[in-house]
Amino acid sequence: MLLAAVVAAIVAAVGLFTFGQVSWPAFPSSNVTQAVTTVGQIVTIAVLAVSVLLYRARRWVRAATVLSWAGLSGFVTVTLGMPLSATKLYLHGVSVDQEFRTEYLTRLTDSAALHDMTYADLPPYYPAGWFWIGGRVANLLGMDGWEAFKPYAIASIAVAAVLALVLWNKLIRADWAVVVALAAAALTVAYGSAEPYGAVIAVLIPPVLVLAWGGLYRPEKSTQTRSGGWGAVVGTGLFLGVAAAFYTLYLGFAAFAVTLMAIVSAGLAVRAQGSWRAMLDPLLRLIVTAAIAIAIALTVWLPYLLEALRGIPADSGTATHYLPDAGAHLPLPMLHFSLAGALCMLGTIWLVSRAASSRRAQALGIGVIAVYLWSLLSMTATVVGSTLLSFRLEPVLILLLGTAGVFGFFEFSRWLVLATSENPRVKASIVVIGLAGLIAFTQNIPQVLASDITIAYTDTDGDGVRADKRPPGAAAYYGDVDRIITEQRPGERHDTVVLTSDTSFLSFYPYFGFQALTSHYANPLAEFRERAAAIESWTELETPDQLIAALDELPWRAPDVFVFRKGSDGYTLRLAEDVYPNDPNVRRYSVTFPKELFDDPRFTIEEAGPFVVVNRVG
User: Fold this and answer.
1) Tell me, what's the pLDDT at 222?
2) Residues 6+ apart with CB under 8 A from 106
3) How far is CA 48 from CA 199, 440, 461, 574, in A?
4) Cβ atoms of residues 161 and 188 within 8 Å
5) Which residues pair with 612 in a beta bridge?
6) What are 603's strand-pairing partners?
7) Residues 6+ apart with CB under 8 A from 170
8) Could you tell me if 477 and 610 are in contact, meaning their C-beta atoms sit under 8 angstroms apart?
C-alpha cells in the first residue's frame, strides 16, 4: 500500500504539473478540455487493459501491478484535473461548503497544531486528518492552503483509489480487482469527489466491508480456520480509525455496517453451533476492531474531548440540522435511467441471487441494508429535531451497488460464455460491450460535475482572479484588506481575530474569525448563538467607550479587526441563524453598526473597494 500510494502520488503530481504548463480555455466556455479529458481517459483505460491482459497471461506480474497503479491514478487525475486545469480552484470553488473546507486547509497549512478552522483558542471539532496532511504538504511545498486544495484533493482521491485496488487485489482475482477498482474510482469521481475528504473514505468502503465480513464471519468447520481472520479484524479497525480522523459521517455508517455484520455473524454462529457461547467470538472481534479504531481516532479527537471535559460550555451543534428533499426519500439508484442506474440494477440482482452462496455478496449486501436502515433512522430522527444526514450516503450506496454490478457482469458474462460453448465471438462481444459502457460513462463524468466545475471558474480565487476571465467579485479586494490589516498589525496573521461576514476571506488568509459562516459549521464549544447575540447588541450602542467596554467584557477573545460592507446608514454585517426544519435551513439577516461607534483614536478606518476595515489599536 505504501509503495502504491507513492506511485499514485507521483503520477498525480506529474499529471497536474503537465496540465498546468498549457494555457487551456475555461471548461464552461469551450469543449477543448472535454476533448483532451476523453483522450486522457482512453489512454489510462488502455494502460489498465494492458495490466489486465498481463495478469490473465500470468506474465510480468510486477509490471502489471505497477501499470495498474499508474493507470488508475492517471485516470482519476485526468478526469478531475483536466476539466479544472484552467482554474486554481477545486470543484464548487470557495462557495458554501467548500468555503469552510478551504478555510480548514488554510488553517492547518499555517500551523501543524490542531486548531479550530475559525475560532481562536479552540481545538477542532471537525476531524482534521485529511486537512492536516494536506496542510503539511502545502506548507512543505510553500503553497497557500487555498491554492493547494485542488491538487491535493485530486491527488488524495487518486491515492485512495489505488489503495482500494491494492486491497481488492488481496481479496479477489488480480484481473478482476483492476476492473472493480476502476469502476469504483469512476463512480467515486462522478458522485463523491466534491467532498474529497469523504471520497477517500468512500472508495475504500466496499473492499473494507468484504474484509470485515471475512474477519467477523468464520463459518468453517475447522477450529484452526475458524480462529483465523484476525488480520482482517485489525485491518478493519485501522480503516475505522482513519475514517474517524477524516469524516465523522462515514465513520458512523461504516461502524454501523460492521456492527450489523457482527450481529448477523453472531446469530449465524449460534444457529450453527446451537450454543449462545458461539456469539462470543464475533462480538470479541467487534470489540477489538472498535478498540483499534478508538485508539487512532483519539489522535484527532482527544484535544476536543479534553476541552469539553474541562467544563467549557458546548452547544449541541446544528451540523445535522439539514433535510433536503433527497434526505426525505429512500435512494433508489438502481431505478435511474442511466448507465450507473443499469449497473446498480445488475448489482441488485446479483446481490439477491448470490446472497446465500457468495461472501462478497453477503458483505456488500449487508452494506446496502445498512444504508437503507441508516436512511430510515435519519428520517425517524426528524421527529426529535435532527437528522443523520442520510442523503450524503447516496454516493456510498451507488458505490456498493456499482461494485456488486461489476461482479454481476463478470458472472453473467461467464455464464453466457459457457452457454455458447466458449464462442470467441461472444467473448469479444462481451469485452466490447463492457468497454463501450465504461467509456460512455467515464467521458460523461465532466458533464455530471458540470455545475461544480462551472463554480470553480466563476468564483474569485485568492489572487483576485476569475478563471473564466470575467470581472472578479468583491474577493478581488481581499488582498487590499489583508494589506491594511498587516500594516496596522505586523505580526503573524493567526495572532489576529477578524469579525467579518465575508468569511471566504478566512479561506485565503489564516486569520482567526470571531464568528463562523453559519452555526452548521461552527464548533459547539464556540457558543455561536451567544456570539451572534453579542454582535447584534453592539449595534445598539451609542459611543466608542461603550463598544470598547463591551468588547473587553466578552467571555471570548474579542475581534481585533472588523471587516464591514459599506451601507447607506452605517457599516453592515450579514449574520445567519439556524431555521431547521425549514429548507433552506439558514436565514441570513443584516445588522448595521453606526459609524459613530468607531469615531475614536482607538480605531483606524480604511476602505478597500466595498469593504470598510476597522482596526482596534487601543
Assistant:
1) 46
2) 144, 145, 146, 506, 507, 508, 509, 510
3) 21, 17, 36, 51
4) yes
5) 564, 607
6) 616
7) none
8) yes
pLDDT digits (tens, 9 = 90+) for 606-615: 999 999 999 9
Grid cell at residue 20: 498546468
Provide mean pLDDT across the span 459-487: 93
DSSP 331: -
The candidate with the shortest Cα–Cα distance to 235, out of 266, 258, 219, is 258
**H/E stretch holding 309:** helix 280-309
CA atoms within 13 A on the CB side of 7: 20
Number of helices (H), then strands (E), in the chain: 23, 7
Cα–Cα distance for residue pair 140/130, rounded to 1 Å: 16
How many angstroms separate the CA atoms of 102 and 459, rounded? 13
User: Look-up: residue for cell 473492499?
Assistant: 207
- Residue 180 is placed in which grid cell? 472493480
Phi-psi region of 173 (alpha: psi -120 to 50; beta: other; left: phi over 0): beta
**Which pTM value belongs to this model?**
0.94
For residue 271, pLDDT beyond 90:
no
Phi and psi at residue 92, to the nearest 5° = 70, 15
Q: What is the dihedral of CA 267, 334, 395, 403, to 10 degrees?
A: 70
* Burial group, residue 73, by CB count within 10 angstroms (0-12, 13-18, 19+): buried
Angle at 227 between CA 221 and CA 228, to 5 degrees: 105
Say yes or no to pLDDT of 587 above 90: no
Contacts (Cβ under 8 Å, ≥6 apart) of 104: 117, 124, 126, 128, 131
At residue 314 the predicted structure's pLDDT band, cuts being 50, 70 and 90, is: low
d(CA 501, CA 503): 5
